[in-house]
Amino acid sequence: MGQLVDRCKGGADREEPQPRTPSTPPASTLQPVNPPRNNTSAAAPPPSSAPQVPQGWETRTDPSGRVYYLNHNTKTTHWELPANVSASSTGGLPAGWEQRSDPKNGRTYYVNHTDQSTHWELPGSHAPPPPPPGRGQPEFRQTSSLLSAGHHQDSNPLSLLQNGRYVRAHPAFDRGPSANSGQDWIQVGGLREAHGHPNINTEAGQFEYTIMSSLPPPLGTWSRMKDGQGHVWMAHKDDLEAVNRFSQISVQQISQMPFKDKRLWFDQQMLRIRTPTSGATEIKLRRENLTEDSWNRVSALNVSQMRSDWTFAFTGESKSGDDAGGITREWFEIMTGAVFNEGVGLFKFTESHNLAYQINDFSGDLNGQQHLVWLKFTGRMMGKALFDGHPLKAHLAPTLYKHMLQVPIKLEDLKGIENERYNSMVWMKDNPVNDVFFETFSATQTCEAMGITNEIELKPGGKEIDVTDENKLEYMDLYLKWRVYGSRKDQIKAFLGGFWEVVPVELLQVFDWQQLELVMCGMPKIDVTDWTANTVYNGEFHAGHKVIKMFWQVVEELEQEDRAKLLQFVTSSSVVPVDGFAGLQAGQGEPCRFTIEPVVYTGKMKGKAYTNQLPKAHTCFNKFDLPLYPNKEVLASSLSIALYTEAIGFTMEE
Q1: What number of other Cβ atoms are within 10 A of residue 134's Cβ?
Q2: pTM for the whole thing?
Q3: Which CATH number applies to 39-91: 2.20.70.10, 1.20.140.10, 3.40.50.1480, 3.40.50.720?
Q4: How many other CB atoms are found less than 10 A from the CB of residue 86?
Q5: CATH assignment of 523-644, given 3.30.2410.10, 3.40.50.880, 3.40.50.10190, 2.120.10.30?
Q6: Catalytic residue among 8, 447, 521, 620
Q7: Over the Cα atoms of the chain, what is R_g?
Q8: Model confidence over 593-636: pLDDT tens digits?
Q9: Active-site residue 592, yes or no?
Q10: Would the CA dihedral through 585, 590, 591, 595 be positive or negative?
Q11: How confident is the model over 201-212, as pLDDT tens digits?
């Protein structure tokens, strides 16, 4: 893979490097028992000569082509099909059903994977279902089995994450030399709090004490629990809290909860789909060849490895084992700066301000065919940063966040991408355009750096179709879809494909786009003193006005999240410029400070309370229309409603 070239530094005349197939990661050596877990890549189809396997077994092929057998009932793998396993036990089960045996008494029961139910008999029987696995000895689950991409939330195993039935736990009892060691995911059914402390005068107590001493700090994050057989487990308190809070709540309900609760739920889901491993995925890089090495290493990782722990090392500087997080943060910062460098041409600043990036329509002309693989790499990198909780400095355009959430686009989404066209469409929507608006069903793309101008037809024969009062709404719809998505469709698909490989879109959708920006980029530290010192007041407003004093009192009382949301509400971004609020800019890049303008309060008195009236924002001008509220309570209530319902009033500035 070639280096990213900054074309603003004279790189435009260099010969274009050709895309190279990413180097294949070394195949893991498959062990006869328990091969690497959570490999989310599709299993190769078994050869036609492979013997028929019984219900609950599966034939797979390792990377070298050797056939092995997976027993889902016991979670074991085998090179050979055991002689005592009869293939005659296969067949006779409906699609999605599996036959299992109760480990306590050997009684056969059936699992319906479609609706996550269990039955003593096949469909048609009225026998009572057995208790779900996990009552008594907790049932162990592979993390990868909890997520099934490409299905709707209401029917896939993602519900296991949503209802929080699993917690992280370390076994604090001896399970024998052949048992898996380290952290497991176990069902909470059958667990109860184990009071007291281990008795170190017994062998079991000494074993438990050894496990407790080896737990990741702080020790207070773990709870001592017992299962139905009296075995002690050290369960993570955060997971137990999540079970209590979210066990019966749907994703839709979680999306209506306060941001802090959404964030807690989301962080839990990232932990639940994390690949359990005894060691981290090692990323070895040469600093002098950083971008190419990073692309080759990250592009070669499968989804399971993308969701594992990473350690970084620069050749000659450090060992990966010495990476306590500093090298990882440095890598994200360096690579973010490389791919978002405007001179490279993958991304460019939005028109509204130079603090947010959009994908460059001409990324392919500037970088050749390799632009799509670099955009997928960028999506993977940003997904990994979100997955691991590393905030990035690169803020994206609102439209890109909405694409990440699969939120439908609106006319307002054109703002910031093409401000002049947006203003024109707002006008033409409410005014006659015949003999005034001389446009056809076509659009123009221009790349000044390469002297390229392309004319695009929005529909077949669009160059010859004039925009009229009769067809202007169709024109506006086609232009919006082309400008926000169609003009960079392949690039958006590549970026989102990489991002969603790491963080499933179903888990992102509890957030709105403003909250997603805060989760990905971190909570800004907003200094209210600096904000007030760099605010302009219009009309009768001044720093000592009663309503202005009430407004800043409300802002002082807001949490950082709500302050950021207010800043987004008025400026379309939660980013504070490097030089503070004095550095705010208007839509065309000129200096434009935060401005508050009075408007008439038209609310009414109902009973003993005033009705709410929502403020409005003019994001192109950083202007906030603040009604002359009668008291602080109605001001705070109206502001809260505006911030949490996205009730932004986009208006034209005369």
Answers
A1: 20
A2: 0.59
A3: 2.20.70.10
A4: 9
A5: 3.30.2410.10
A6: 620
A7: 29
A8: 999 999 999 988 887 778 889 999 887 788 999 999 999 999 99
A9: no
A10: negative
A11: 888 888 888 888
